Amino acid sequence: MKTSQGAEAGREAAHPGAGWRDDRGQGLTEYALILMFVGLVLVGALLTFGQSIGNLLQPIIAAL
Asked: Where exactly are the structural domains of the chain?
């Protein structure tokens, strides 16, 4: 029995908190990362296609 306890103690010393998981906030973090990625994609799309979208909408804006 002492050898198994010694092995567990050695494992915990090498990886503190290895047997403990705290998943609080994981969903919020994943949601924030997804929103950040979507925002970066939108900014990239606007930088790439912004001028052509403006030229496409210009006759509609002038008609209003």
From this structure: 2-63
